[in-house]
Model the fold of this input.
Amino acid sequence: MSDHKVYPVSAEWAASAWADEAKYNEMYAESVNNPDKFWGEQARATIDWIKPFHQVKNTSFEPGNVSIKWFEDGTLNVAANCLDRHLATRGDQTAIIWEGDDPSSDEHISYRDLYERVGKFANALKAQGVKKGDVATLYMPMIPEAAVAMLACARIGAVHSIVFGGFSPDALGVRVEESGSSIIITSDEGRRGGRRVPLKKNVDAAIAGMDNPASVKSVVVVKCTGGDVAWDTDRDHWYHELVAGQSVDCPAEEMGAEDPLFILYTSGSTGKPKGLEHTTGGYIVYAAMTHKYVFDYKDGDVYWCTADVGWVTGHSYIVYGPLANGGTTVMFEGVPTYPDASRFGRVIEKHKVNQFYTAPTAIRALMQKGDDVLGDSDLSSLKLLGSVGEPINPEAWNWYNDIMGKGECPVVDTWWQTETGGIMIVPLPGATAAKPGSASRPFFGVQPALVDNEGNLIEGSGDGNLVILDGWPAIARSCWGDPARYEETYFSTFKGMYFTGDGARRDDDGYYWITGRVDDVINVSGHRMGTAEVESSLVAHAAVAEAAVVGYPHAIKGQGIYVYVTLQAGVEATDELRKALVGHVRTDIGPIASPDLIQWAPGLPKTRSGKIMRRILRKIAANEHDQLGDTSTLADPAVVDDLVANRMNR
Ligand code: PRX
Done:
C-alpha cells in the first residue's frame, strides 16, 4: 500500500533524535545478529546492577521446552534503579507531576521525596509481614501512592498484582485468589470525572465473596476522598498510620534478574484471565530503553502517558520506564472530558508537556467534538505524540497530527501487548517515516513475521498471523502458577514462535499494519476483553440459556460489544431484561465489559457438531451479512435469516 501518504522524518528530528535511520538500521541489525553483545551493552549502559551478569540471552521457544531467561546470573533492584541512583544528580528534580481529577489539584514530587515515601511504605509493608516473593494486590486510583506502592513492593522484592480500579468486586476477588495475595492496597474511594468510585467497599465485597476470606490478612487503605468506609479493625489499616514513624531507609532487596517483578491479569480467548508474570532484569532494561528511544526522551522533558497503572501501559510507561530514565512523568487521576473536553489541552499547557501518549479511543472522542475541542490551550510545548492500545484509523491519526501536533510532532503508533512488556513495533521518531495507521517497524531485538493458518512463513508483502520469532528481554515468562497454560496459549499454535493473537499486513516497504485480533478477544476502547468472559457472565443469569459475544466496529470505542442471547423457555424478551443483563455484566466484571447491543436470538448458528460459528455472528453484527460466506455446514441455516432480519441497529 505504498500509495498511502508518507510523513518523512524531518532533518531536524533525524539530527537530534537518539536514533536516525542509519543508526536504527545498524542497531537493529546488531540486536538480531548479535543479541548477546547488543543487549549486554545496552543492559550495562541503561541499568545499575548489583552483581554483573555474564550470561545475556538464554531463550527457547521450542514446544515442550519454552524457557526464557535474560541476564540470569545478574542481580539488581528495580526501585533502586528508579530512585536511589538518581538522588545524587537529580534529587530535587520532579519525578512525578500528579494532576488531580479536580483541575485545581496537583502536586510535584521530587526524586528525593519519592525515594523517602517509597522507603517508608516499604518498611510499613515489611512490618505487615510482607516478604520477598509475596504477592501484593493493588486496587487503586491514579494517585501518587499507587506509584509509591509499586516501587515499595519492588524495593522489598514483593510481587505486585495491580487490578484496574474499574473492575468489579467479583473480578477483583478472583484475581486476589488466583495470585495467592494476602494483602490488598487500596483507597477509601477514587475520583473520576467528578464522581467517586467506592474502592474500599469493593474490596470488602471482593473479600466477602472469596472462598477463603481469611486468606486476606491485611488491607491497607489510603485516605483519598475522606469518604465513609466500613472497617475491620483486625484486618484494615490506614496507610498514613502505617507509614507514620517508619524510617525512610529501607535497604533495596538484591533480586535475581529472573525474580518476578509483577503479575498482571489480562483477558484471553478462554474464560479465566491469565496472570502474566514479568521478571526483573529484562523487563526494566527494555522498559527504560523503549521509553528513551520511542519517545526520544531527553533530560528535562515532561512526559505524559494518559493510561492507568491498572494496565500494562501504566506499568511500563508511567512508572518504570520513565523513572528508570530519571524522567519527569505526569500521572493523571481524571478523564479526558472532565470538567470538559479541553482537559487534555489544559494539562499539556499547565505542565508544559513535551511527549504525550494516549489511546486512539480518546483521540476519536475528542475529534468528534470538533477541531476547537482543546479550546485556546497552548500546545506549543509538545514535541511528540504517541498512540497505543488499538489500531489508529488514518482519520484519527491525521487529526492527532494536524490538530494536536500542528503538523510538527512525529506521531509514534506503538504496537505491543501485556505479554510483551514493552513497545514492539513502532516508527522511531528520528528514524522511520510514518504512514498513518501503520505501527511500521520492529524495535531493537524484535523479529516479527507473518504466517498463514498452517504456520508457513509469508515472505514479502502479504497478510497473516503476526508472530515473533525470537525472544526479547521484556517478554512475559509465564502465567502465574500455570506455566503449561503459558506455553499452550502462546507457543503451541505456531510451533517455535510466539503467537500474538493479532493479524497483520506487511506492505512493500516492510511496514506492519496491525489488523486486529484473530482470536476471541475484542478490544473495547483499547481495553482487552475476552468474549468468553462476557459470555460466562451472561449465562450465569437465570434468564439466559445461551449467549454469544462478538465485537463490532464502533466509531469511538474501536470495537463495541455485541451480544446474542437465547433466553430460557418462557422468559419474555423485554427492554427491562436487556437493561438488567447489561447491569448484570457491569456488576460481574465491570463497566468496561458493558454490552453495547443485545439481540434476542431464538437460536445461534452452529455447526452440526454444536460449535457456534462466530464468523457469521461477527458479520451480522458488522452489518456485512452479504458476506456471510459458506453457511452450508450449519445445522439449521434458517437461524441466520432470523438473526439478519432482527439485527440491532447502532
Ligand atoms: O490487538 C492488539 C492491540 O491491543 C492488544 C494488546 O492489548 P493489551 O495487552 O491490553 O495491551 C494494550 C497496551 C499495550 C494487541 O494484541 N493493540 C495494542 N497496540 C496497538 C494494537 N493494535 C493496533 N495498533 C496498536 N498500536
Summary: The two ends are 31 Å apart (CA to CA). The mean pLDDT is 96.
